[in-house]
């Protein structure tokens, strides 16, 4: 049991090895319905049982895998939530607020809003576009000095063609409700979050390797000391002196953030050490360096929403990007602050249900709109 707790902690922090991640998935796959009693109450049908399980669920701290039946997914997720809480990871809770109102909000019987999946648009050097979720895996053609390949698992890669060729610029655009990964021509890996884009050359032929980011991405940079790697995100430029970092530059957020996990990066004249974050305030353009909540920042890549004293509007901005929905306020958001985590693999209704149970606002869905109610 202690080994499992330690493994879950490492996974949530992004420190689990591929072998450890495989072991965690194997444990999850071996989950047996007989481990949890699932009796039907008199007169209760399957749908009502599923709702009863959902009502009992506390934040699912493990990425839930879609192939499991509904009731097994929630039972396994609830089990993991208990283990993670025992390992010292907070469950979702509201703070500085009166207890939630004893009201059950009604959600119209509309089609479920699903979480983000692997989809992106590739814009080629000549301006033409390819919807990557619509094309088969395999070679997509050549761009400048590279062969472009769509791999399995939502990954695009550029394989250098030693026959040469001029570099051209491609742009990988991930819409709201999507996510994608790209392996650049130098072997650097980039994971793009929802509502993000990356512009890059198909070959790094100059004195530096430079890409342009909008939105959020996690980078693992191939080391080439003679050819520095730079990321430009709006008004912040990061010079990469090490390996792994996250960068967030959404237009609807008040700051641009660069967070270092391993190695070194330089922002302006400041060199960050692992665990630090550079924050550039768009109002006033003031740069500050401080310690980062790496677990929260890397949560999106690890399949989680993690909140650390976050207010409802901030949480809903993440929900907008992940589920590709619109927020309509018919009530003022409550003043409570949330802490804890919820799986990003849950449907939207389940996430809203957890927020309702732990806050003072309620929600109604209408197509792709989420209406905030008193």
Automatic annotation (TrEMBL):
Membrane spanning stretches: 74-92
InterPro entries: FecR, FecR_C, Ferrdict_sens_TM
Gene3D superfamilies reported for this sequence: 2.60.120.1440, 3.55.50.30
Residue ranges annotated for the Protein FecR C-terminal domain, each copy included: 305-372
Keyword Transmembrane on entry: yes
Domain FecR protein: 171-266
Keywords: Membrane, Transmembrane, Transmembrane helix
Protein name: FecR domain-containing protein
